[in-house]
Amino acid sequence: MTLDLVMAGVIAFGVMMYVLLDGFDLGVGILFPLAGDEAERDRMMNSLAPIWDGNETWLVLGGAVLFGAFPKAFGMLTSAFYLPLMLMLAGLVFRGVAFEYRFKFDDPRWWNRAFFGGSLLAAACQGLVLGAYVQGVGADEQFDWLAPFPAFTAVAVVIAYALLGACWVVLKTDGPQAETMRRRGRRLLLASLACVAIVSLWTPLMSADIATRWFAWPNLAYLAPIPMATALTAWLTWRGLGRNGHDALPLAAGMGLFMLTLLGLAISLWPWIVPRSLTVFDAGAQPESQQFIAVGIALILPVILAYTAHNYWVFRGKVSADSGYH
Amino acid sequence: MEITALLLSRIQFGLTIGFHILFPTLTIGLALLLIAHEGLWLATKRAIYRESCRFWARIFAVNFGMGVVSGVVLSYEIGTNFAAFSEATGNVLGPLFSYEVLTAFFLEAGFLGIMLFGWDRVPRWLHFFSTVMVGIGTLISAFWILAANSWMHTPAGFSMQDGVFFVEDWWAIVFNPSFPYRYAHMICASLLTTAFVAAGVGAWHVLNHKQAEFGRMTLRLAVLTAALLAPLQILLGDLHGLNTLEHQPMKVAAMEGHWNTDTGVPLLLFAIPDQAAETNHFEIGIPEITSLILTHDLDGEVKGLTEVPPEDRPPVAPVFWAFRVMVGIGVLFLLLAWSGVVQLLRGRLYDGAGLNRHLLRGLILASPLGFVAVIAGWLVTEIGRQPWVVYGLMRTADSGSATVTAAEVATSLSLFSIIYSVLLVVFVFVVLRMMRTAVGTGPQPSDNTAAAQGQPA
Hints:
The complex is a heterodimer.
Chain A: H1 2-30, H2 38-48, H3 52-69, H4 71-80, H5 82-101, H6 109-135, H7 148-172, H8 175-206, H9 208-215, H10 219-223, H11 225-240, H12 249-269, E1 272-274, E2 278-279, H13 287-314
Antiparallel strand pairs in A: 1-2
Helix pairs in contact in A: 1-3, 1-6, 1-7, 1-12, 1-13, 3-4, 3-13, 5-6, 6-7, 7-8, 7-12, 8-9, 11-12
Chain B: H1 5-44, H2 47-80, H3 83-117, H4 124-153, E1 158-161, E2 164-167, H5 170-174, H6 179-208, H7 213-247, H8 249-256, E3 262-263, E4 267-274, E5 279-286, H9 289-295, E6 301-302, H10 316-345, H11 357-366, H12 369-383, E7 388-390, E8 394-395, H13 406-435, H14 447-452
Helix pairs in contact in B: 1-2, 1-4, 1-6, 1-12, 1-13, 2-3, 2-13, 3-4, 4-6, 6-7, 6-11, 6-12, 7-8, 7-10, 8-10, 10-11, 10-12
């Protein structure tokens, strides 16, 4: 019981880390075709070169811990989302190899396309899966991922990742490239907020449970800080993205916005691990397995966070076009 | 055979894992090569080692990237295509995979950036430390994934209720009976494959850039390494085979094309196994040698495939042939490596007029064969384990995903077939071009200059 909660917390943390880190990573890929020239694209890619692999590892951690701690949910969810997941993996393959091959060919255009297309496909498929997940599923049913709500969340995730990507580029570049990205970032922020608002209205209309969770008294009072904090982070992101705004604030505030959105989704869906079908308390592995994983997490995760932070620290600062790959 | 979602899923898994294993095989060997050369550079300050690190690190980067992207696919396929298997084995295998991510993948990812791009950003000791961490990460990764794979071959430390495996003893699960043999055999395969890749590269450079020290140094080191590892690998393979005989006798029977339990069993050099007729056609064999190898007695009794009912037998022909391919390459490697040492001792491996061009060309042609042997070896062990996915306990036929249709799997299978074919061609093209790049032996460049030019080395 307690272990189920701990494991659900670990998976939620892994998903959050993945969305925050690979979110800006994929977002940079989505913004790739909009870059002014190849030098700008070089800088965008080199800013990611030392870190993208670690960012993607959180996705593998989420999958592996789900497999170990909630095997039933892992089998049900992954097989239910078969095609979107396969397309997502294919997208991740394309964008991953683009890092290696773009600088190996005289003409980078094909690898630019692979990097953009792969990033876009992976982000859109994650959005499809998210939407279908929130909609929920009956036992032994296929998730209905070809429906209006998942289609909308696919677009929303692409826009929101692009926002994080823009904030990352603002942090890692300077001059005209950063200034252009600030303007783009503001537009993407407005679009992202519109998406959050639409999802916040759509989900309670779609599900009476979600409506009750948020709007019944006294939940309404307890949960009120979440939309308020969301508004605050949105305002900070907007300020940070302004002309002569701060370099790091947009990314920090944008990530805060993401964390609040994820928290909102978690509150809407609790205690489901397979929405409307399996709760975290019905899907757990045997306690010995969850304990074994919990020990590993407790001992190793702090070390991972430390050397991941060190890696980001080593590669801090603005990138020049000719650092990294070539 | 009916085209089912399960059949297509198995083809897809075989294709994607067969593609993936090519890259970690080289990653493990190259990581150790890089550690050795960077260590030698720090110790001797000879520019050639620094140049060698730069040369191999570029290849390592591309190879590692391919391994990462193809590996992420596999971690999800276990759920997407084999939901019943993942629900039955999650208690046991899920934690092993979790530990692989925690102890290996993050370690590799956390230090790879510094190793490839950090020459001018961190002190030398920290760079070397990062290279060592990446190398250790590759070995830890292989540890967990082979523990999980070995457990499926020789399950231990568990109990079973309603078709679900429950953990009894973690130590017994991780160090299951076939794990030490499989781990040693695979790591040695990885090093041997890399040694032959390096030998081919060295030989090419000796033939084409005669003045360059890089070719001679690479060739000498690779040939010496291979001369040690080739016999070691044959020994490890023999031990692994005896372990298999104890736990999976039908796999060994299929490897030998041996149908009926008998004494004084011959070693078949050639045969066409006939699954339906339970016999071989066109057998050519050496009398009593299989008995000698497996029982260390010319008259030893060896169990045949007919000991179990037909539905419990693995497909014989692919196992029989893949085994011969693997062993054939192993023997060829032994001959090549030792010929290389003989020529080295005679001073004719890379020097002067007596240069043995035939041997060098042979080494170049043989350089990709390690990958063929690795694939063949995996075909032997995985097809030889059929019809079981968890040996003796869970049938492959019961492992699929109930909700996934054949059409869906056909779609993803076509997609990955196309993508992987293209990527393999690109990879070979790019890596061959990098391997042909001349390595200078001019004055030692300061590492700051190298890094400022943006070289991932």
